[in-house]
Write a structure and sequence with these properties.
Bound molecules: guanosine-5'-diphosphate, magnesium ion
Pfam families: MMR_HSR1, YchF-GTPase_C
Strand order of the largest sheet: 2-4-1-5-6-7
Shape: globular
CATH architecture of the domain at 304-366: Roll
Radius of gyration: 23 Å
Function: ATPase that binds to both the 70S ribosome and the 50S ribosomal subunit in a nucleotide-independent manner.
Number of strands: 12
CATH superfamily of the domain at 304-366: Beta-grasp domain
GO cellular component, one term: cytoplasm
Protein name: Ribosome-binding ATPase YchF
CATH topology of the domain at 304-366: Ubiquitin-like (UB roll)
Largest sheet: 6 strands, mixed
GO molecular function, one term: ribosomal large subunit binding
Length: about 375
Amino acid sequence: MLAIGIVGLPNVGKSTLFRALTKKQVEIANYPFVTIEPNVGIVEVPDGRVDRLAELSRSKKKIHAVVEFVDIAGLVKGAAQGEGLGNKFLSHIKEVDAIAEVIRIFEDPNVIHTQNRVNPEEDLKVIELELVLKDLETATKRFEGIDKLIRGGDKIAPLQKELLSRLKLGLEKEEPANTVLEREQKEFLDKKEIAVFLNELSLLTAKKKIFVFNGSEKQVAEHWQSSGPLKNAVADAERILLSATVEDELNLLAPEERKEYLKTLGLEESGLDRLIKTAYKTLNLMTFLTTGEDETRAWTIPVGSTAPRAGRAIHSDFEEKFIRAEVIPCDKLIEAGSYAKARELGWLRTEGKEYIVKDGDIIEFKI
Ligand SMILES: Nc1nc2c(ncn2[C@@H]2O[C@H](COP(=O)(O)OP(=O)(O)O)[C@@H](O)[C@H]2O)c(=O)[nH]1
Ligand SMILES: [Mg+2]
């Protein structure tokens, strides 16, 4: 399963956010492949289509798509040199697919700030620098052993050396790996050996990122308006504004009260729901659905998957023995009101191996 790591300096609200997330934790029994650890939370991706389809099919069970969040402790100034939890931090963060970077905006005299004052721009710089330094360490270590591999006749090592030296050059200038990679020639990066090697290096500054600004709506808005550096640093990355404490409180309310409360805050959706959806999108994932009396279920697949690849999410047989699939977009089935009606209207399509699945397709596999 794909995982998002929550990182940030101490006392910025990571654990509060994580606690709020885990209150939404799914019934683990439905996800047999999941192992639970104290700093891991598995949460449903909010998706109204699942509820509507379950109603239409009178399903006994409803199973949403999920994403995994990991509360990663140990990032402090100097973490790259082993300060704080140092290496433990590194091994945890390397395993995640994307990073949610929590930045403290809220002011609260009772919550100590590690740099003694609330300064999001500075915090951001500290975090980015630590991540860059970790990557520099990773790249340097690999670089040091590479000549030996080349001498030993390793065919791929010279290419790896080239990549590592370009990465090192950039990282030494405090450029994140993704900036270096963006500049690289596509032909170079597209080489299969390079892609595999890069993946295996799992550089922190090459991971997808979501910024989470933690504070009241007002505080965040004020800060955002007045801060050019903050805007620059975030650039095109996804960003979520929320208050971790409010999110935690929201979980205590009944669904109706929650809606009311959100309304008074001028919000349609909780910050957590926005975060979960954004995470799903950032990981380049999408959903297809299956529905019937037994269950209605959302399945997670990479954007651009073919029908057989989608089948793999259910069972490897569905990919290997794929013959064809019967497909209807979710909104079309809901509009028709039933499978029988949809069939009568000719809205069910038969698709073959090459079909590229779209988000919200309902698929029945024929094997
Ligand atoms: N006023 C205020 N306090 C918060 C907010 N988010 C977290 N806190 C408090 O800040 C303290 C540190 O939060 P925690 O989640 O443990 O931070 P972590 O070190 O990043 O995991 C706790 O006392 C939280 O209650 C917020 O949005 N507003
Ligand atoms: Mg914490």
